[in-house]
Design brief:
The protein has 295 residues and is an alpha/beta fold. Helix content is 47%, strand content 22%. The chain folds into three domains: 72 residues, Orthogonal Bundle (Arc Repressor Mutant, subunit A), CATH 1.10.10.10; 104 residues, Periplasmic binding protein-like II (D-Maltodextrin-Binding Protein, domain 2); 92 residues, D-Maltodextrin-Binding Protein, domain 2 (3-Layer(aba) Sandwich). The chain is built from ten helices and eleven strands. Strands 3, 4, 5, 6, 7, 8, 9, 10 and 11 form a nine-stranded mixed sheet that branches. A two-stranded antiparallel ribbon has the order 1-2. The longest helix is centred in the N-terminal third of the chain and has 24 residues.
Length: 295
């Protein structure tokens, strides 16, 4: 069986429709339809029922999903190993949101490389949609993200809770009503909480989809915004930023996502190392506001 057919099937499963799957695969909708029809002919079973809401898997499709994921992962593993220099015995692909690479995964990476020098690591940055797609298709072995989706065959493990706090480059009080407020989109749960806490907020002059971009803009040009306490703690203690204690805080859980069934010792070691480092962050984020000096 052509692994591209299995990959297209998994993309439709993740996207929920042929149209969205075609956009993600950068092909026409007719190409997706042809691939799925070819796959159904090879298997002798109908895999999807198409309706106005998109594409829903049949019972045969649900049974085939596990086999499709195994096929794609096997092909990707072979591709990685064949493309590795002869000095390496294995490879891993680890993905994560930019904000979770900062401090956490960047701390884990050199530790893992020192403990497993014969394992090549491919580091990827992405948003939840792309990370989940990579996990479903087997291109990514493990990923850290804030808002994962539930997918058959994937484990979603909470690691620690972030504390999103409002900080400003100026000592005076700050709020989202200010002209220099920078709105960083930390995901659906943050947007919902932000709307409840600030019902009159109609938008910011600057909106950033990546925390690093928002923080650098704030530091370079001034302003305020919500960021994880672990990322701004040292800046607050150095007087470069000022914690707005009167402002509400928001919680944001970081998750580790990986295949439930695996026979990969390298991945198991990587997961264990990430969990160990995450414990330190869990302790850091649980520290009280009194641990940050009043400004």
């Amino acid at each position: 069986m052509d692994s591209e057919l299995a990959r297209t099937f998994l993309t439709v499963v993740a996207a929920g429709s042929f149209i969205t799957a075609a956009e993600r695969l950068h092909v026409s909708q007719s190409t997706v339809s042809t691939r799925i029809r070819t796959l159904e002919e090879q298997l002798g079973a109908r895999l999807f029922v198409r309706n106005k809401g998109g594409a829903q898997m049949t019972s045969e499709g649900r049974r085939f999903q596990r086999h499709a994921a195994t096929l794609v992962r096997t092909v990707e593993a072979a591709r990685h190993e064949l493309g590795m220099p002869p000095s390496f015995e294995g490879s891993l692909t680890v993905g994560g949101r930019f904000g979770l690479w900062e401090q956490l995964l960047l701390t884990w990476l050199p530790q893992f490389r020192e403990a497993s020098p014969n394992v090549a690591v491919r580091a990827q940055i992405g948003f939840e949609k792309d990370l989940m797609q990579g996990l479903v298709e087997g291109e990514i072995d493990a990923a850290l993200m804030y808002t994962p989706q539930s997918r058959p065959g994937l484990a979603v493990e909470p690691l620690f809770d972030e504390r999103l706090v409002l900080v400003s480059s100026f000592p005076r009080g700050a709020s989202p009503a200010d002209d220099d407020y920078i709105f960083v989109d930390w995901g659906a749960s943050f947007r919902a909480g932000h709307s409840v806490s600030f019902p009159d907020f109609t938008g910011a002059a600057i909106t950033a989809s990546i925390g690093w971009l928002g923080l650098q803009t704030l530091l370079d040009h001034g302003g305020s915004g919500y960021f994880p306490l672990r990322l701004v703690r040292e800046l607050v203690e150095a007087d470069r930023l000022h914690l707005q204690r009167q402002a509400p805080e928001f919680g944001l859980t970081a998750y580790l996502v990986y295949p439930r069934k695996r026979e990969n010792e390298n991945l198991d070691r990587a997961l264990a190392g990430i969990r160990t480092i995450a414990k330190d962050f869990a302790t850091e984020t649980s520290r009280t506001d009194g641990s940050v000096r009043e400004r």
